[in-house]
Structures are given as C-alpha cells and as structure tokens.
Design a protein that fits this description.
The chain is about 35% helix and about 15% strand. The protein contains 15 helices and eleven strands. The chain has helices at about 10-15, 20-30, 35-45, 60-75, 115-125, 165-175, 190-195, 230-240, 275-280, 285-300, 315-340, 345-350, 360-375, 415-420, 450-460, and strands at about 55, 85-90, 130-135, 180-185, 200-205, 225-230, 270-275, 305, 385-390, 425-430, 435-445. The two termini are about 20 Å apart.
Length: about 475
C-alpha cells in the first residue's frame, strides 16, 4: 500500500492543530512525531503538484529525525516546544548535503557542506525538516516561468500567486503541508506571502536571527523569520531560531526572551499608532475596510489607537530600492557578466540596473534611510506599536504576462525593513473572491514580544487564522 493510500482521516486532521497543541499532544502520547511527519508527507504527495510549494521534499531525513524525536521524548529528553515539529526551509537557506538552489539554474546542483545557522538551530531544537521551498530566484527574480522549477501557487486559489519571495514557504504553511516554515525578508518577503496565504509571518528585528548560510539579497537589509499559522506558533519558532551568531556580521548580541510567556492575552492600555495614510491612499477598498475593522478589534481589547502621519510610503520604497539594487548587483556581478543567460529574465531586468548606481547615490540612499528610520523611531516616545495594512491588495493572478508587482502598488512592508524593526502580519479577512487580507503590526527594536502579544490577543478573539483552504 502506498503512503497516500494508507492516509487516514485522523492522521490528516493532525495538520489542523497548532504547534502549541501538537506539542501538548506529543507529550501526553496522543500523537507521535513519526505520525505527524507522515501526515505532512502524505498531504504534500497528494496536493503539492498543484501548488509547487516545494523544490525538494526530504522524506528520508524527515522520518529519521522524527524517529529520533519520538525516542528522545519517550526517554524524557525534551528539547523544548519545537521538539518533534515538522517545518520547511526556503531554498536560499543552506542545508548540508541537500539541494540549496535559491530557485536558480545558477545553483541547480548546489549541495553545501554546512547548514545555515538558522537550520542548525531548528535541528538542535528538535525540529523535523520536511523539505526546501520554492522562492523567487535569489529572492528577487520572480514570479518567473523561465526557471528550472515553476513558481508556487496560492493555496486559496491556484490561479493566483502566493506572494514572494518566500512564496513556497507561505503556500506550504497555508496549505497545511507543514505547521511552520522559515522565510527571508528584505523588503517584505516574509510578510507579503503570509498576507497572501492567510497565515502569520514575522520579520524579526535586524540581527535577531542569523543570516549566516542564507544566500544574500541585500546585506544591510536581510532578515530571517518564522512563518506559521498563529502568533503563538511564531513565538515558539522564533525562540527556537533566534540568538547571537558571532560569524554573522549583522547579528546583534541581545538576550532572547521567553516570547511565549509574553502572550498574556491582554493589550489593555497598549498605545498603537495607526499609519492609515499608507493604506488608504493606494489599497483596495476591501483592504481598507478589513484593516480598519481589525484595528477596531484592538480598540475593543483595550488598546489606545491614534492615527499618525509618517513620511510618504514612496520615500521608504525609493530609498530601499536604491540600496537593494546596488547591493544585489554586487552579489551577482560575476555571474551576470559571465553567464547572464543562466538567470531568469526578471532577475536580469531587476538587478543589472544596479551596476549603474553611483557610489554617491548609494551613500545618499543610506543617509536617507537613517533619516526616515529616525523619524519613525521617534513615534516610540509616545507609542508601543505601529499598525498598518499587511499588503495593499489581495493576491495577483498567476499570469506569466502580468504587470510586474514592483510597478503596481507601493510596498507597505518596506518601511519596517528599512528601519530594521520587528513586524508581524496576521490575517484579518477575505476579499469577495475569498483571498486573504492582512493587518501589520510593528514594534521597537528587539521588542518582538510586544508585537507578538498584540497579534496573539487579536487572534484569541478572531478566527481568520484558523480558516483553511479547500485543496480538493
């Protein structure tokens, strides 16, 4: 009997539970890591051909790690709340002996000798690696149809895209293939797919999670972070992978708190600055209504919300784009000069212009970044959090001839990338076409705990994050 044929309803239902619930179930013996891992592999085998969320499924590795986790838990060795939890890694994250392609022909056979720090930490926490997920090529060139692997599709409707560049991670968590995945975020690449796939995604503070072993996009702006279904699950995964790494020049030696303990359920008296002009000027009417309704829920929970005005969204986007294209070109310059035909068309068109950025332009953009970030940080003298939309529209159609997303709307995620602040996206509704909509909450540097507390409080009284797509 094949793996798919042996699937039971009870096993498939395991994937509806949160990481927190699964942890309790594994410790009381009502479910085993092997059973949970098998459920993930079966669901992927049944449905991922329609979604393309995985480039590589590491079934043998996963089952081996699951058997080890099961034996350890049975013997009383408990590595913590992430022990026995299946997860996926974006394919720009190195994994020893496992294809780490960054979704590019350039790395089509690349199997690094050492795993990225974030992968090592999750393994040490007892996590079970299910596989590597699709992305935009090198986290910038996509969605592309001229690469060795097709672009991922949205689990809510495969005729739409899941956002990017952590597209496969968002789709895999949204489709209930895995309870958790790691994404990377330079201008919104965790939060955009989280928003499009109806899940919860956290871009931590710059330097909170090591990027060593993650192929760079923009050195001065790259982040790694968790993508899960709830803020509580994000807290569990972040605790497992955060921490100082002396071998990552951008890592910062800041104590890692107990994020889960901070989830009190109360946000009474929390002061929230609502940056409404960032979404009311360019978002769809459905997004405006959904985000306004979500903010009203925060008010009803006792938060004090005040509308504020910051710099125009375009300023953050322009400063970030200038910095990124210069740094991206420096990363890929050798291959762009010697084998440009091996890149996808979108990557070439977005990155090659970086070779024309003058040193003066780059330096001025970095100064502009400092000014914009300083003015944003000034809000924290009066407020605990900033809130705005998670994205300005529902998912885009999966159209190879569609308009480049960079040319459609402003990226409401970029301000918090530029400032390096922790920012969380939580689902807050659906469009008329049943595509997810999201709220974004950001906080002070290294105050992920308060950001997660607000997201968790919202999710305790709403059910958007519990709704799942019908995959057939």
């Amino acid at each position: 009997m094949s793996v798919i044929e042996s699937e039971t309803l009870e096993r498939s239902e395991l994937l509806d539970f949160s990481i927190a619930d699964l942890g309790r179930m594994m410790r009381n013996g009502s479910v085993s890591p092997v059973e949970l891992t098998t459920a993930c592999l079966e669901r992927i085998a049944r449905h991922d051909a329609a979604l393309n969320s995985f480039i590589t499924v590491t079934a043998e590795t996963a089952l081996s790690q699951a058997r080890r986790a099961e034996a350890e838990l049975a013997s009383g060795r408990d590595r913590g709340p992430f022990h026995g939890i299946p997860y996926a890694l974006k394919d720009n994250v190195d994994t020893a002996g496992i294809l780490s392609s960054s979704h590019s022909k350039i790395f089509i056979d690349r199997k690094p000798a050492e795993s990225a720090t974030v992968a090592q930490k999750l393994e040490q926490a007892g996590g079970i690696l299910i596989g590597k997920t699709s992305t935009f090529e090198f986290a910038i060139g996509g969605p592309s149809w001229d690469l060795p692997w097709p672009p991922a599709r949205n689990p809510w409707n495969r005729n739409y895209l899941p956002g990017g560049s952590s597209s496969g991670s968002g789709a895999a968590v949204g489709a209930r293939f895995v309870p958790a995945a790691i994404g990377t975020d330079t201008g919104g690449s965790i939060r955009w797919p989280a928003a499009m796939c109806g899940i919860t995604g956290l871009k931590p503070t710059y330097g909170r999670v090591s990027r060593r072993g993650v192929h760079p996009n923009t050195y001065s702006l790259d982040h790694c972070g968790p993508m899960t279904r709830s803020a509580e699950d994000c807290a569990i995964m972040l605790a497992a992978c955060a921490g100082y790494d002396p071998l990552d020049p951008g890592s910062i030696d800041e104590p890692v708190p107990d994020y889960r303990a901070a989830l009190s359920g109360s946000i009474q008296g929390l002061r929230i600055a609502l940056v409404r002009h960032w979404y009311e000027e360019d978002a769809t009417e459905e997004v405006i209504a959904a985000v306004d309704a979500a903010v009203n829920v925060l008010r009803e929970l006792g938060a004090v919300v005040e509308v504020v005005t910051l710099d125009p969204l375009r300023d953050y986007v322009d400063a970030k784009t200038t910095i990124s294209i210069a740094e991206l070109f420096s990363v890929h310059e050798k291959d762009l000069r010697t084998r440009p035909q091996d890149f996808g068309k979108l990557l070439r068109s977005r990155v090659m212009v970086g070779g024309l950025v003058r040193a003066e332009d780059y330096v001025q953009a970095m100064r502009w970044r400092a000014e914009l970030s300083t003015r944003m940080m000034a809000q924290f003298s009066r407020f605990d959090l900033l809130a705005t939309a998670g994205w300005l529209a529902p998912a885009d159609p999966a159209d190879p001839d569609g308009v480049d997303f960079f040319k459609k709307r402003q990226l409401v995620t970029m301000p918090f990338s530029l400032a390096g602040l922790p920012a969380l996206v939580v689902p807050c509704g659906f469009s008329q076409t049943r595509l997810p909509l999201s709220l974004q909450i950001a906080g002070r540097p290294f105050d992920e705990a308060t950001v997660l507390r607000a997201g968790d409080a919202y999710q305790r009284v709403t059910d958007w994050h519990r709704t799942k797509p019908a995959l057939g």
